[in-house]
Protein backbone atom coordinates (compact mmCIF):
# COMPACT_ATOMS: atom_id res chain seq x y z
CA UNK A 1 0.00 0.00 0.00
CA UNK A 2 1.35 3.42 -0.96
CA UNK A 3 0.90 6.33 1.43
CA UNK A 4 -1.25 9.21 0.20
CA UNK A 5 0.41 12.27 1.72
CA UNK A 6 -2.67 14.38 1.00
CA UNK A 7 -4.72 12.13 3.26
CA UNK A 8 -1.87 11.25 5.67
CA UNK A 9 0.59 14.18 5.84
CA UNK A 10 4.11 13.65 7.17
CA UNK A 11 3.52 14.89 10.72
CA UNK A 12 2.52 13.34 14.06
CA UNK A 13 -1.18 13.06 13.24
CA UNK A 14 -0.63 11.80 9.71
CA UNK A 15 1.93 9.27 10.92
CA UNK A 16 -0.36 7.85 13.62
CA UNK A 17 -3.32 7.59 11.23
CA UNK A 18 -1.13 5.97 8.56
CA UNK A 19 0.19 3.46 11.11
CA UNK A 20 -3.37 2.64 12.18
CA UNK A 21 -4.33 2.03 8.52
CA UNK A 22 -1.25 -0.09 7.87
CA UNK A 23 -2.09 -2.17 10.95
CA UNK A 24 -5.47 -2.97 9.44
CA UNK A 25 -7.70 -0.46 11.21
CA UNK A 26 -10.78 0.64 9.25
CA UNK A 27 -10.58 4.44 9.37
CA UNK A 28 -13.96 4.78 7.67
CA UNK A 29 -15.61 3.53 10.86
CA UNK A 30 -16.25 5.94 13.75
CA UNK A 31 -13.96 5.59 16.78
CA UNK A 32 -14.14 7.17 20.20
CA UNK A 33 -11.12 9.47 20.12
CA UNK A 34 -9.78 10.80 23.41
CA UNK A 35 -8.27 14.30 23.53
CA UNK A 36 -6.43 15.39 26.69
CA UNK A 37 -5.82 18.72 28.41
CA UNK A 38 -3.51 18.98 31.45
CA UNK A 39 -3.71 21.54 34.26
CA UNK A 40 -1.45 22.42 37.17
CA UNK A 41 -4.34 23.68 39.30
CA UNK A 42 -7.59 21.89 40.12
CA UNK A 43 -9.60 25.12 40.05
CA UNK A 44 -8.64 25.81 36.42
CA UNK A 45 -9.38 22.22 35.45
CA UNK A 46 -12.82 22.49 37.08
CA UNK A 47 -13.56 25.72 35.22
CA UNK A 48 -12.52 24.18 31.91
CA UNK A 49 -14.54 21.04 32.61
CA UNK A 50 -17.68 23.12 33.19
CA UNK A 51 -17.02 25.04 29.98
CA UNK A 52 -16.63 21.81 27.99
CA UNK A 53 -19.80 20.35 29.49
CA UNK A 54 -21.69 23.49 28.45
CA UNK A 55 -20.27 22.88 24.96
CA UNK A 56 -21.93 19.44 25.16
CA UNK A 57 -18.66 17.52 25.28
CA UNK A 58 -18.34 14.11 26.97
CA UNK A 59 -15.47 14.41 29.46
CA UNK A 60 -13.72 12.90 32.45
CA UNK A 61 -11.56 14.74 34.99
CA UNK A 62 -8.96 13.16 37.27
CA UNK A 63 -5.74 13.92 39.11
CA UNK A 64 -2.70 12.09 37.77
CA UNK A 65 -1.07 10.59 40.86
CA UNK A 66 2.42 10.61 39.35
CA UNK A 67 2.54 14.17 38.03
CA UNK A 68 -0.04 15.79 40.29
CA UNK A 69 -1.61 17.35 37.18
CA UNK A 70 -5.33 17.49 36.63
CA UNK A 71 -6.30 15.84 33.35
CA UNK A 72 -9.45 16.39 31.34
CA UNK A 73 -10.16 13.76 28.72
CA UNK A 74 -12.66 14.71 26.02
CA UNK A 75 -14.32 11.79 24.23
CA UNK A 76 -15.35 12.48 20.64
CA UNK A 77 -17.06 9.79 18.56
CA UNK A 78 -15.90 10.39 14.99
CA UNK A 79 -14.23 8.90 11.96
CA UNK A 80 -10.48 9.42 12.46
CA UNK A 81 -9.86 11.83 9.59
CA UNK A 82 -6.76 14.00 9.55
CA UNK A 83 -8.42 17.38 8.92
CA UNK A 84 -11.07 16.83 11.61
CA UNK A 85 -8.45 15.80 14.16
CA UNK A 86 -6.35 18.88 13.38
CA UNK A 87 -9.42 21.13 13.72
CA UNK A 88 -10.33 19.64 17.10
CA UNK A 89 -6.73 19.89 18.29
CA UNK A 90 -6.74 23.60 17.45
CA UNK A 91 -10.03 24.10 19.29
CA UNK A 92 -8.88 22.19 22.38
CA UNK A 93 -5.54 24.03 22.36
CA UNK A 94 -7.40 27.35 22.34
CA UNK A 95 -9.69 26.22 25.17
CA UNK A 96 -6.73 24.92 27.19
CA UNK A 97 -5.02 28.31 26.89
CA UNK A 98 -8.14 30.13 28.09
CA UNK A 99 -7.99 28.13 31.34
CA UNK A 100 -4.19 28.04 31.81
CA UNK A 101 -3.97 24.44 30.71
CA UNK A 102 -1.98 22.64 28.06
CA UNK A 103 -3.37 20.50 25.26
CA UNK A 104 -1.75 17.07 25.64
CA UNK A 105 -2.63 15.04 22.54
CA UNK A 106 -5.10 12.43 21.38
CA UNK A 107 -5.45 8.70 21.26
CA UNK A 108 -7.95 6.02 20.37
CA UNK A 109 -8.46 2.31 20.23
CA UNK A 110 -7.79 0.92 16.80
CA UNK A 111 -9.90 -2.04 15.75
CA UNK A 112 -8.27 -4.64 13.58
CA UNK A 113 -10.43 -7.46 12.26
CA UNK A 114 -9.12 -10.84 11.24
CA UNK A 115 -11.55 -13.22 9.55
CA UNK A 116 -9.60 -16.20 10.91
CA UNK A 117 -10.31 -15.31 14.55
CA UNK A 118 -13.31 -16.66 16.41
CA UNK A 119 -16.18 -14.22 16.89
CA UNK A 120 -15.34 -13.62 20.59
CA UNK A 121 -11.77 -12.67 19.71
CA UNK A 122 -12.49 -10.37 16.73
CA UNK A 123 -11.47 -7.09 18.34
CA UNK A 124 -7.73 -6.67 18.66
CA UNK A 125 -6.78 -3.20 19.70
CA UNK A 126 -3.82 -1.00 20.42
CA UNK A 127 -3.50 2.48 21.89
CA UNK A 128 -2.54 5.08 19.30
CA UNK A 129 -1.65 7.80 21.79
CA UNK A 130 -0.38 10.89 20.05
CA UNK A 131 0.61 12.95 23.09
CA UNK A 132 4.29 12.51 22.29
CA UNK A 133 3.86 11.90 18.57
CA UNK A 134 4.77 8.22 18.85
CA UNK A 135 2.79 5.03 18.92
CA UNK A 136 2.93 3.35 22.31
UniProtKB/TrEMBL annotation:
InterPro entries, per the entry: RraB-like_sf, RraB_dom
Residue stretches making up the Regulator of ribonuclease activity B domain: 11-108
One Pfam family it belongs to: RraB
Gene3D superfamilies named in the record: RraB-like (3.30.70.970)
Protein name as it appears in the record: Regulator of ribonuclease activity B domain-containing protein
Taxonomic lineage from the root: Bacteria, Pseudomonadati, Pseudomonadota, Gammaproteobacteria, Moraxellales
Amino acid sequence: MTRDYQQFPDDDNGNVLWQMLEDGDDLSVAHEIEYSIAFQHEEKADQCAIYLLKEEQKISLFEDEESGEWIITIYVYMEPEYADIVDLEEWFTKIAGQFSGEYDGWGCMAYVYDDDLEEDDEDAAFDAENADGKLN
